[in-house]
Amino acid sequence: MKIKQQCVVALTWTLKDTLGEELDVLSDAVEFLVGGDDLFQSIEEALMGHEAGAKIDLHLEPEQGFGDYDDQLVFLESRELFPKELEEGMTIEGAALPLGCSPDASKDALYTVTEIYPEHVVLDGNHPLAGIALRLSLKVEAVREATEEEIGQGSAGSAFFKIQAAHDSVPGNGTVH
Hints:
- The chain contains two helices and eight strands.
- The chain is mainly beta.
- The chain has two domains: 7-66 and 129-153, Chitinase A, domain 3 (Roll); 71-124, Thrombin, subunit H.
- A four-stranded antiparallel β-sheet has the order 2-1-8-3, with helices on one face. It has a four-stranded antiparallel β-sheet with strand order 4-7-6-5, with no helix packed on it.
- Strand 1 (7-17) and strand 2 (22-34) form a beta hairpin.
- The chain is elongated.
- Residues 163-177 have low confidence and may be disordered.
């Protein structure tokens, strides 16, 4: 079966930055709905017409991927607002930010604790891959018709490569997969 709109593709991949540093390897196939909310448009376009077994190498600029880095999504908050066990790398949903945090911090975003100082905490609402050009080597492991439920949900359940603009929402849990 050739890849077309409203079908499900099972993909494996290797994701690298432009310097060749490996950012993620997915060796067990994950299913994505083509024509839904799971994939970036640039990836969907590259997949069209291919079949199981196809290998596709893509170069994605930030605007084709996780977006440009937005310094307006970085907040410096008082350390005393957060629990003692807070660690760098932890993620906090915007809706769970403590009272007293910046009113400009969106409740719909996901923030990563990037630095902890004695008096302040730095929260970053950018996707960890924002601002990075990416090299993606995909392998199409399988292709199948999408179910009515998947089409209705707009997803096969895995939306790693599809995000809304940062001011709308920051997806997932901030991990690569």
